[in-house]
Amino acid sequence: MKILLLFIVFVVAAPVQAQVGASWAAAGRTRLSLTAGYVSSHEKDYAVIGAGAGYYLLNGLEAGLDGEAWMGSKPHIYSVSPGLRYTFTQMESMKPYVGGFYKRTFYDTLSDLSSAGGRAGVSSTLGEHTYLNAGLVYEKFFNCSETIYTDCDQLYPELGISFTY
User: Fold this and answer.
1) Spatial distance between the Cα atoms of 118 and 139, rounded to a whole number of angstroms
2) Global pTM value
3) What angle do CA 43, 49, 53 make, to 5 degrees?
4) Per-residue pLDDT for the chain (165 aa), expressed as one digit of tens each?
């Protein structure tokens, strides 16, 4: 079981259009993100750092690439993950999102694994340039032996605060 105690996402969106009232998820915008957090999983503790970038192909539809490093306990874990996410921008205060991803995970003492999954949640505006994202992620690892990796299917929460300009 994966327990997410703290996971913060800082997102900077560079506006392509200078329209009044333009959405943070408008077509042509770019996302840059930094992540930091703490995870406790199977009696192991990790500090998590990461970075990512995305581009809004259409209003609400983002194609992105993200990476993470889990440091602390052994094994150290590194991942790279391309994905798509759609945010329903038509809603005013609570904006639901859904997405899918592929992930390649590298371990320093175990064989590497591939996985795919989906996510769903809501984004809520906290201020003009600040959003709270909360949701659930399901991840399925391929060619995974539970005697080595313990969990080949995972369901875990995601929580983030996004800052845009």
Assistant:
1) 7
2) 0.80
3) 135
4) 444 444 445 455 444 443 433 477 788 888 888 888 888 877 889 999 998 888 989 998 999 999 999 999 999 999 999 999 999 988 877 899 999 999 999 999 888 999 999 999 998 877 666 678 899 999 999 988 777 666 789 998 988 776 664
Question: How far is the CA of 46 from the CAs of 27, 65, 146, in angstroms?
Answer: 36, 22, 20
Three-state SS for 129? coil
What Rg value do the Cα atoms of the chain yield, rounded?
16
Distance CA 44, CA 40 (A): 6
Scan for tokens 């969990």, then name that residue.
151
| Distance, CA of 15 to CA of 27 (rounded, Å) | 10
Strand order in the sheet with 94-107: 2-14, 30-41, 44-58, 61-72, 77-87, 94-107, 113-127, 130-141, 153-163
Closest C-alpha to 1, from 160, 117, 148, 152: 152
**DSSP states of 10-25 as a string?**
EEEEE-S---TT--TT
